[in-house]
Design brief:
Largest sheet: none
Shape: elongated
Strand content: under 5%
Number of helices: 14
Number of strands: 0
Radius of gyration: 23 Å
Length: about 300
């Protein structure tokens, strides 16, 4: 009991100490990471105001502080949905991007892994758009595989960020395209994130790829809600813009597959088979191709069984 009590007191003291890091007089990468970690700890203990007070003095001078400060305000706006909080969050996100721009340097992509500021800019700006974020994380992953192994705290932070980004993207895209319990939540998360953040930054920045992604996700949500005609309209809008898509070539075969499942749900087995066969035979070398082909194979087996007298 005494040992257990001592361990509990030690853990509690650690948490208290971690929450009371004194205000920094200068800011470098190591200090920025420590203060941001401390702010995260405060947020997880429902001490939002203390976290904001810790990050605010440096949010115009440190990218980590800018990202943490703006993220907390966005969380607050999402929870309260008050117009005032939303306006503050929108302004702070733009301020965070401006802070990142101040640290941008003209350098080669292969630069030193110990210099993480340039990569942090890519993380923040890339995270604002689903279409580009995955490409940036993949580039950072290539840098990890090509670079020399390092044991510094900075390298660990960079490596962890890359793995989190790659994993989060795959988890959401995997979840939104299947029919598990998490599918509707994944689709809604992607739809909310993509539309909300893109509209905050600049509606004129919308790219045909972005519009098609939004329509596909909207179609998935509507299909799960049983609004099949509206879902069909969203999917057909993606297909009508096929020639305008420049980067995200997975959108069309995934949409064909989802449209085929929709027709199957409506009882039109022949039409469902045609669309899913189209996705299988006419599209190659796109992201997550093997995953879609696995689903296509399963769906076609079910459709062939349904068409057999």
């Amino acid at each position: 009991m005494a040992a257990h009590g001592a361990a509990g007191e030690e853990e509690e003291c650690f948490e208290d100490a971690f929450e009371r890091i004194p205000a920094a007089r200068h800011m470098d990468l190591r200090t920025a990471i420590q203060e941001t970690q401390c702010a995260l700890n405060l947020v997880l203990n429902n001490k939002f105001n203390e976290a904001l007070e810790l990050l605010k003095p440096w949010y115009r001078d440190s990218m980590y502080h800018a990202l943490g400060y703006s993220s907390i305000l966005v969380m607050k706006a999402a929870m309260t949905f008050e117009h005032h909080d939303i306006q503050i969050a929108m302004t702070t996100i733009k301020d965070a991007l401006n802070t990142c721009q101040k640290f941008r340097r003209r350098s080669s992509v292969v630069g030193s892994l110990s210099s993480l500021d340039e990569n942090m800019i890519s993380f923040i700006k890339g995270g604002m758009k689903i279409r580009t974020s995955y490409q940036i994380y993949k580039e950072c992953q290539n840098m990890l595989s090509q670079g020399q192994a390092a044991t510094s705290e900075s390298f660990s932070q960079f490596e962890g960020g890359v793995k989190l980004g790659i994993g989060s993207f795959n988890l959401l895209m995997e979840g939104s395209a299947n029919h598990s319990l998490r599918s509707i939540l994944s689709a809604l998360t992607l739809l909310f994130y993509h539309t909300y953040v893109s509209l905050i930054l600049d509606p004129s920045e919308y790219h045909p790829d972005d519009c098609c992604l939004v329509q596909m996700l909207k179609g998935l949500c509507l299909k799960h809600l049983g609004r099949l005609l509206q879902a069909e309209l969203c999917f057909t809008q993606v297909l009508s813009r096929e020639r305008q898509i420049r980067y995200d070539h997975y959108l069309v075969p995934f949409t064909l597959y989802e449209l085929g499942l929709l027709y199957k749900q409506q009882g039109d087995v022949a039409k469902a088979t045609t669309y899913i066969e189209n996705a299988k035979s006419n599209y190659k070398d796109y992201s997550m191709e093997s995953r879609l082909h696995f689903r296509i194979h399963a769906a076609l087996n079910i459709l062939r069984g349904a068409s057999t007298p």
